[in-house]
Design a protein that fits this description.
With 993 residues, the protein is mainly alpha-helical. Among the domains are: 32-53 and 75-171 and 192-250, no CATH class; 264-320, no CATH class; 329-488, no CATH class; 513-642, no CATH class. Helices cover 58% and strands 0% of the residues. The chain has a two-stranded antiparallel sheet. Helix 14 (344-354) runs parallel beside helix 16 (382-403), helix 28 packs across helix 29 (650-666) and helix 43 packs antiparallel against helix 44. The longest helix is centred in the first third of the chain and has 31 residues, at 147-177. The termini are far apart. The relative contact order is 0.03. Residues 515-991 form the INTS8 TPR repeats domain.
Length: 993
């Protein structure tokens, strides 16, 4: 017989031995009720389970058949002694309220698993092996099983699965941080490390545990917790007892949810899934608060199940970025986003009064909702989602107006939502009217000025008119104020005669042939419907026109291939119809009305495929191929114009473009069937280049008749070389050799601009693919630097650089940059390059605008901190040069802090410039300085100049706690980051707005 704690002194009379509880289970209740029972509850569990080792991992009894085994409950393969010990262990765990914190601190991992397996087996009424049984038939019950009790047991086990992995990681991390602690390691660390091999086996069922716990949260039935009375011990004179699972008590749903969300939050923090951790910690906080209100203090009894610690929960809230302030609007905003934007309008209205949420966060919210709708979300009614967007935009505009100092103009929204402008303005009136009396007098004045401006700009576009809105929402602008405002701004109207107001002039009934022909020709020019054009041509043909009808409008032009195809066609209806339809289609395509152009060409295509024309072998049938090329040309124009939206039939469009290129390069000179016109061939090559069909361009045989296709093929080869030889400088020079001659000065010539028909000038407006644009930009930038002698000598190997015209290079570079930034306005390298080009041309204000735009885009409109590699010393030095050249010397001094090491010499020189204090209001930049040395210099400089007020102002900023030299590096970095963004916003307002 083993004692619990072997000692060299006799045991105390109060000390009991483990087998005494086995012989007389009624002693257990009395023992556990003592203030400090010896042995402790967990020591008893250890002794009981160690004497009943069968369980985890053993499917059958190891010992020979026991005569007592016939008396054990059906479905459980335990001896009577083993079953009695297990039930006693579970009674103690129930007495401890199934507190996993206490069990994990004092029991080894193997005993924890054994205890949980015994709980699952006894509640199921059959043997359950963890975790293998959970993957197959955990829902089956034995003869003595209980469904709600098994649910309780499995919930406890799945909670433990998540917690065990978190605890093991925490202990290992602690030992790595303190490797020499040795003897002072806690029991928890010792147990976890001793059973470290058991924990990785839980990883395969982790997702199963998460799914099970989430399912428990959604169960409608009450969750019942097994109590001390639920387990009936076996007495020595009783062969079989039935467990009292009906003694389990039902707990509040909020108590269960608080505990499970707490455990899920712990696990998600461990696996670094912070969004899910945040969701669960907020739900835990909500349910924990509800549970405290409903249960704590009412019964006077300790909690039956939940062991959430309030202080630890607060720590998890802070770790998940929740401030813990229940009334914080920013926190409420984040919670609203997680709950699908619930109460978002109320939060934004309240923020318009309190102004707590940064405008960058509100703008991001607006963009998030727009994106949520743009991807076609099916959550909720589409109309309600659109109204929610307009409500958020309207409330943001009101906040913009009242702030008075923002980077983004509030009028952008009115242009952005032009299709819903009337509804947006009505929402503006509604929300401003609801809170108008709560705003300050200054804010009320700003709102009135803004609404007067809206009335001026959009007065004729509103449905309903502003008078109706003002009558409904009269607080911001009253009806009398509207009348007075319009009376002041009314301009004398020019009176037009009746004849000038007619949309169309009616031709009187007359037999004047020339007048009637003119009227019909005017209609032929105006209408774009193929059926109407056909009828007009028939009417005009009956009046014997004196000239071909396609000559009446000089804007109708057709390609050479189409013209050659129409030559064999007899002069008459078909020839005029084909010419006019093609000319009108080109005219509509030039106006970007691609749908009309395609409709016209499709009708002409069908006309060329008429069965009677084919049977009669009419030459008009041969017009079909040039019409197909015209359709392809319009399709490519539409794709390039609507970039980056990809066409629905992209694969077919690529095939047609390849066929066109093949037809162009394979057509022999002087062929009866003229090849596609050169403009279409260039468009096809550009489309393949933009759609990453680079190999197709190389596979087609290119001759010198199509220099544009040659250039596209050279760029394709450069792209493929870059992908093939990554990290090396080995690239194809064919593009370089093709572009270089375009910038030569012809002998005796003073060329002032690039030839508009050169392959480069024709290709630049059609380039869209970022990688191709970057390659061409680098090529032109390299040539620009060579001609300016701004690169190393090894790059100046090209002979006679004086023969090249750097102005033409600069023109091409600017043209390509403007085109690229039109489609990718936030491409940071291109913005910096555009700034460098302007800097090289001494356009310092334009250079600063592009440099600042690059930094603003890189920081997502100052919502993230400015840091490298977004900027470097080279960029900052150029920005300093721009600022000082523009007379903004203090701006340059502040920028000197952005270097790796502050350039004090340059910054002190900038501040000491005579006009420094007058050109850019130097005292407004004190809040952007984080270098104490620079502030100290400013204080002394003001002292020397006798500027007492400015000196005191600089001293007040120098005395800020976050600028203390004794602060740690993290505080210093945070202070610098905040001031960098503040300075960047001021630059944006100066150079971007």
């Amino acid at each position: 017989m083993n004692f619990l704690k072997p000692r060299t002194v006799p045991l105390s009379e109060e000390t009991m031995l483990w087998f005494e509880f086995l012989l007389k289970p009624s002693l257990l209740t009395k023992h556990l009720g003592k203030p400090n029972p010896d042995p402790s509850p967990t020591d008893l569990i250890t002794q009981f389970l160690s004497k009943a080792p069968e369980g985890q991992g053993q499917q059958t009894d190891i010992a020979p058949p026991d005569p007592d085994a016939s008396h054990k409950p059906d479905g459980l393969r335990n001896t009577q002694k083993q079953l009695a010990l297990k039930i006693l262990a579970l009674k103690i765990a129930a007495y401890m309220r199934w507190d996993l914190d206490k069990l994990e601190r004092t029991l080894s991992v193997s005993l924890q698993i054994q205890l949980l397996a015994d709980l699952c087996s006894i509640t199921a009424g059959r043997m359950i092996t963890l975790p293998s049984s959970l993957l197959h038939d955990s829902a089956k019950l034995g003869p003595d099983g209980s469904k709600h009790s098994l649910t309780f047991a499995l919930t406890l086990y799945h909670r433990w699965v998540l917690r065990a992995q978190v605890l093991r990681a925490a202990v290992i991390k602690n030992l790595k941080a303190f490797p020499n602690h040795g003897p002072t390691i806690s029991d928890l660390a010792a147990f976890v490390l001793r059973d470290e091999s058991s924990i990785p086996a839980l990883e395969p069922i982790t997702q199963l545990s998460i799914d099970f716990l989430n399912q428990v949260l959604m169960e409608p039935q009450a969750f019942r917790v097994l109590t001390y009375e639920s387990f009936v011990p076996l007495d020595w004179n009783v062969e079989h007892t039935q467990q009292r699972f009906d003694a389990a008590i039902a707990i509040k749903p909020c108590e269960l949810r608080a505990q499970i969300h707490y455990d899920l939050c712990q696990y998600y923090l461990y696996v670094q899934k912070y969004d899910l951790a945040r969701q669960n910690v907020l739900l835990c906080k909500e349910n924990y608060a509800q549970w405290q209100r409903e249960e704590i203090g009412r019964t006077g009894l300790p909690p039956a199940y939940c062991t959430v610690d309030a202080e630890t929960l607060q720590g998890y809230l802070l770790a998940c970025g929740v401030t813990g302030e229940p009334d914080g609007l920013l926190q409420r905003l984040h919670e609203s986003i997680l709950n699908h934007y619930s109460d978002i309008v109320l939060i934004l209205k309240e923020d318009n009064l309190r102004k707590e949420i940064p405008m960058t966060q509100r703008k991001l919210l607006e963009l998030n909702i727009e994106g949520y709708n743009a991807i076609g979300s099916t959550d909720g009614n589409l109309t309600e989602q659109k109204e929610l967007v307009l409500a958020v935009v309207a409330l943001n505009i009101i906040r913009y107006v009242m702030d008075g100092e923002n980077i983004l103009s509030c009028n952008v929204a009115l242009q952005k939502y032009k299709a819903q402008q009337s509804k947006l303005i009505e929402s503006l009136f509604q929300y401003a009217d609801e809170q108008y009396e709560q705003f300050s007098l200054v804010d009320q004045g700003l709102l009135k000025q803004y609404f007067y401006r809206v009335i001026t700009l959009h007065g004729t576009e509103m449905v309903p008119p502003f008078e109706t809105l003002v009558q409904t929402y009269s607080k911001v602008v009253s009806l009398q104020e509207l009348k007075d405002f319009r009376a002041q701004r009314t301009q004398p109207e020019t009176l037009l005669g009746w004849i000038a107001t007619q949309v169309d002039w009616l031709v009187p009934e007359t037999k004047n042939h020339r007048l009637e022909m003119g009227h019909l020709e005017r209609q032929l020019i105006s209408y774009n419907n193929s059926t109407t054009i056909r009828k007009l041509l028939v009417r005009i043909a009956g009046k014997t026109p004196s000239k071909p009808l396609y000559t009446i409008n000089p804007n109708w032009t057709i390609s050479y291939a189409m013209e050659q195809a129409l030559v064999p066609v007899q002069h008459g209806f078909l020839q005029d119809f084909a010419y006019i339809i093609t000319g009108k289609a080109r005219e509509q395509a030039a106006r970007k009305d691609y749908s009309t152009a395609m409709a016209l060409l499709t009708v002409l295509k069908n006309e060329t495929q008429r069965q009677d024309l084919r049977e009669n072998k009419s030459p008009f049938v041969k017009v079909s191929k040039p019409v197909g090329w015209e359709i392809l040309h319009v399709q490519i124009q539409q794709v390039l114009d609507e970039w980056p939206r990809k066409p629905a039939d992209q694969a077919q469009l690529v095939r047609n473009s390849k066929q066109c290129l093949s037809a162009a390069v394979s057509a022999p000179v002087g062929s009866s069937e003229p090849p596609p016109h050169a403009k279409l061939v260039d468009h096809c090559a550009a489309l393949l280049l933009n759609l990453n069909e680079w190999s197709a361009l190389l596979m087609s045989t290119v001759d010198k008749r199509f220099p544009g296709v040659q250039l596209c093929a050279a760029l394709s080869q450069a792209v493929l070389d870059i992908e093939k030889f990554k990290g090396t400088k080995k690239t194809n020079r064919e593009a370089w050799e093709m572009v270089l001659p375009l910038f030569l000065n012809p002998p005796g010539s003073r060329q002032r601009q690039l030839a508009p028909d050169s392959p480069l000038m024709l290709l630049i407006p059609m380039l869209r693919e970022p990688l191709v644009v970057s390659i061409l930009l680098s090529l032109l930038a390299k040539l620009h630097n060579i001609l300016r002698d701004e690169v190393n000598a090894d790059l100046n190997a090209d002979p006679n650089t004086s023969n090249y015209n750097i102005k033409l290079v600069n023109e091409a570079l600017n043209l390509l940059l403007n085109q690229a930034l039109r489609y990718y306005p936030n491409n940071i390298p291109w913005l910096k390059l555009k700034g460098d080009v302007e800097f090289a041309a001494n356009n310092f204000e334009a250079a600063m605008r592009y440099y600042v735009t690059a930094l603003i885009s890189g920081t997502e409109y100052c919502t993230v901190h400015l840091q490298r590699p977004l900027f470097d010393d080279f960029l900052i030095r150029r920005m300093v040069k721009c600022s000082t050249s523009l007379g903004c010397f203090v701006q340059g001094a502040v920028l000197c802090q952005f270097f790796d090491e502050t350039d004090y010499g340059l910054s002190f020189k900038s501040i000491s410039e005579k006009p420094a204090s007058y050109a850019d209001a130097m005292d407004s930049y004190y809040s952007c300085i984080w270098d104490p040395t620079l502030l100290e210099f400013i204080v002394n400089w003001h002292h020397k100049r006798g500027e007492h007020k400015r000196r005191l102002q600089a001293i007040s900023f120098l005395a800020q706690l976050e600028l203390n030299a004794n602060n740690n590096e993290e505080i210093k970095r945070e202070a610098a980051a905040i001031r960098k963004n503040r300075f960047l916003r001021s630059l944006a307002k100066q150079y971007m707005c």
